[in-house]
Amino acid sequence: MRPDLPSEITLYGLQRSFARECHNAENPCRRETSVIRLIVFYNLLPGSDEAAFLRRRQNERRDPVASIPGVQRADFGLVTESPLPGQGRTPNDLPWHFMTVAEWDTRAAFENSFYDEGLQAQFSEINSKASDVLFLVTEILTGTDRRKEAS
Amino acid sequence: MIRLTVLYNLPPGSDEQAFLRWRLGEHQESNASMPGVLRTDFGQVTESPLPGQGRAPNALPFRYMTVAEWDTREAFESSFYEEGLQAELADNVEKISDAVFLVTEILTETDNRVNAS
């Protein structure tokens, strides 16, 4: 396991047992099973037709990132609030209005896919049609899924 | 589905190891036991790629991310905006910096694992 992380790692059902098996192993096995999540936050360019964008995004352009090689799960959402912690429903400006997520099962799968030149060219084009675009790549270290535990 | 995403850093001088032990242990349990939460996870942000620029280095605006999901807007609101939870949040954000909380209504979802099975 990565030396900079505590040894008790949980990651949903399957990975949790895997992490236990690898608890004392001197190899980076957990890293190979980590979910990699790409989140893209963005706004539309000024003057864009948001209603038309949302219609298209929920119909003919539904989860286009789901067809990127290796993507296991993808979703798209509308950011509705940016609460100030501890301040309840106090209004706050939204830094972004939209969020797209894609997940890969492994770091290797993510890198092979995301950094492909053709895909990078597509991202460059998409970037020119949006504003305030922020890409974040996150290695998921722990997770709990009540739906899986209940089933 | 309603998703809460929290992006944040640690204040300068923080003990990152101690934070990770707390965050991966008791705090994960605490988040997972919030009323109505169906799924919650925590991760370390490793890259903030510039679109179309491949592996060109870029500063990370945030180092950590927490996600929690509720099935409905009603379930989220009765859980997240509850006074006790808000007070707890106010305490917990003392441990972090640059926190941004985002509530997202998920409009579309594609799960290729389900589609493949």
Structure description:
The complex is a heterodimer of chains A (151) and B (117). With 151 residues, chain A is an alpha+beta fold. Chain A has helices at 12-21, 29-33, 50-58, 107-114, 117-127, 146-150; strands at residues 36-44, 71-81, 98-104, 130-145. The radius of gyration of chain A is 18 Å and the shape is globular. With 117 residues, chain B is of the alpha+beta class. Chain B is built from five helices and four strands. Chain B has helices at 16-24, 26-32, 73-80, 83-92, 112-116; strands at 2-9, 37-47, 64-70, 97-111. In chain B, helix 1 (16-24) packs parallel to helix 2. The longest helix of chain B has 10 residues, at 83-92.
Keywords:
heterodimer, A: 151 residues, alpha+beta, 4-stranded antiparallel beta sheet, 4 strands, 32% helix, 28% strand, globular, B: 117 residues, 5 helices
Question: Could you outline the blueprint of secondary structure elements for this entry?
Answer:
The complex is a heterodimer of chains A (151) and B (117).
Chain A (H helix, E strand, L loop, with lengths): L11 H10 L7 H5 L2 E9 L5 H9 L12 E11 L16 E7 L2 H8 L2 H11 L2 E16 H5 L1
Antiparallel strand pairs in A: 1-3, 1-4, 2-3
Chain B lengths: L1 E8 L6 H9 L1 H7 L4 E11 L16 E7 L2 H8 L2 H10 L4 E15 H5 L1
Antiparallel strand pairs in B: 1-3, 1-4, 2-3
